Amino acid sequence: MKKLISVVLAFALITCGVVYYTNENNAYAVSASSNEKQLLARAVNGEARGEPYEGQVAVAAVILNRVRHSSFPNTISGVIYQPGAFTAVSDGQINVPIDENSTVYKACNDALNGWDPSGGAIYYFNPDTATNAWIWSRPLIKTIGKHRFCK
Predict the structure, then answer these.
(1) What's domain 34-150's architecture?
(2) Is the pLDDT at 80 greater than 80, yes or no?
(3) Of 87, 81, 93, 79, which Cα lies nearest the Cα of 122?
(4) DSSP of 103-149, one letter per residue?
(5) Residue ranges per domain, the chain?
(6) CA separation, residue 66 to residues 36, 39, 45, 123 (Å)
(7) At 43, phi and psi to the nearest 5?
(8) Residue 32's pLDDT is what?
(9) Phi and psi for 114 in degrees, rounded to 5?
(10) For a Cys staple, 59 with which of 48, 68, 99, 137, CB 3.0–4.6 Å?
């Protein structure tokens, strides 16, 4: 009976546009419309194109971690469009549509479904291109590909 209830609940959450999200042994529900999923995929494509799959999932997870963090806006679009937060917004890459069958879209779905290879990071940067000295002060969690993920 518990299994049936869990399956029904999971189906209800998915069909209502709410994605079940877990991180660090805690469960969270992140509301993600199809427009916000597309926006998330566009941001990840602009920020992590060419990175390993795990790195793309980690970038998506950072955006979701910010949604849950009190220092950031509480929506995916609010986090992505926060002034100065993402190069993909400032250089226009955010406007490139992403096919729902693409690898980057799958990476975003994996992050929305609870995979967080960033270890709970709320920041990331590429040390080869970072221009702000402040980012180097953030405690390092891990490196994936060319990105450093930080607290």
Answers:
(1) Orthogonal Bundle (1.10)
(2) yes
(3) 79
(4) HHHHHHHHHHTT--TTSS-SEEE-TTT---GGGGGSPEEEEETTEEE
(5) 34-150
(6) 15, 15, 18, 9
(7) -65, -45
(8) 86
(9) 115, -5
(10) 48
